[in-house]
Structure formats: C-alpha cells, structure tokens
Write a sequence for this structure.
C-alpha cells in the first residue's frame, strides 16, 4: 500500500479478512494515525501467515522514543523480512530492538536510515552473531526526474512518508440531491 492513509478500523477489517492468507504486507508508504498505534499493532497480531512486513514510519520508527508495549506482538509472528524506518536513532533503543523485540524467525532486517549512524554502530563485535542479516537502506534512489511535479515529489521518489506528519480533517461535500424536472 503506497500513498494511502489507513484508519485503525480499515486496517482491522483487512486483518480480519486476510488473517490466515496474507503473507506479505508492504505498507511503509502508507500513513497511519500515530496516536492509534496500539490498535494497529493489535490488528497486525492477527496475521498468522505473514513472513514479510514493512512498517510505515508513522506507525513505528526507530528513534529516541521507546517502542510501545504492543510492538511485542511482532515477536509472535513468523516474520522473516522486516523493514523499519529510522528517525533520529538512539543506540539504546536500537540494541533493545535487536535483542528483545524481533522474532526468532527473522532472517533479514532492513533499516531505512538516512542518518548513517547505525552503520557505524553495526560494525561492533556484539552484532556479528545475530541470527539475522541487517541491511541498511537509503532513500536516495529517485524514481522520477527532478522536473516531475516541479521538484516536489519526495513522497513519490522515496516511497516513504517521512516525518513530520500532518493530520488534517477532511471535509466531504454534502450529498447532492437530484430533482426531477
């Protein structure tokens, strides 16, 4: 899912419908309502066959903020590939993520880290014996030329809705009534 905003109720409906069959969920390019993160993680816990998961930055970003308690649901899922966005990384939180929050089934962790700080940290000996591969990704690859959309196409070129997030209330037009003449 790219370029969409997903409400907690819509995500729960997806989770209920595809709980046993969905094995890949890529919604790193989606926008979720951050204050409802616990609800999204509860819904994620319903996907019993999921092996590939990319989390949108508005749901979880490796940062100075601690992971919410509901993030632990990922440990119970059979995830083999996980992609996470990194925003102002904190080494203590990074270590906690690697040691306590990731599932045993994980084979590859992809960190979208524009800061470059984790690259240096990962060279330490303590990370050499992880049961999964850690891949650092950058968002520098551009899909469209700079002239497209007058140079204002960072979302399209990066496919990640980067912070800060702006939530706006959407006003819908009133219903149109048709009168017979």
């Amino acid at each position: 899912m790219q370029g969409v905003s997903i409400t907690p109720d819509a995500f729960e409906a997806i989770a209920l419908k595809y709980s046993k069959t969905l094995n890949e969920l890529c919604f790193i390019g989606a926008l979720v309502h951050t204050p409802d993160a616990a609800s999204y993680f509860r819904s994620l816990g319903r996907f019993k066959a999921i092996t590939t998961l990319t989390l949108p930055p508005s749901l979880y970003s490796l940062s100075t903020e601690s992971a919410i308690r509901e993030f632990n649901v990922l440990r119970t899922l059979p995830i083999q590939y996980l992609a996470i966005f990194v925003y102002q990384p904190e080494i203590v939180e990074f270590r906690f993520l690697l040691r306590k929050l990731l599932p045993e089934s994980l084979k590859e962790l992809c960190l979208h880290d524009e800061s470059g700080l984790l690259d240096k940290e990962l060279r330490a000996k303590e990370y050499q014996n992880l049961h999964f591969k850690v891949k650092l990704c950058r968002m520098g690859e551009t899909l469209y030329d700079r002239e497209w959309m007058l140079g204002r196409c960072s979302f399209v070129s990066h496919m990640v809705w980067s912070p800060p997030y702006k939530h706006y209330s959407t006003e819908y037009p009133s219903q149109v009534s048709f009168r017979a003449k």
About this structure: The longest strand covers residues 81-86. The two ends are 44 Å apart (CA to CA).
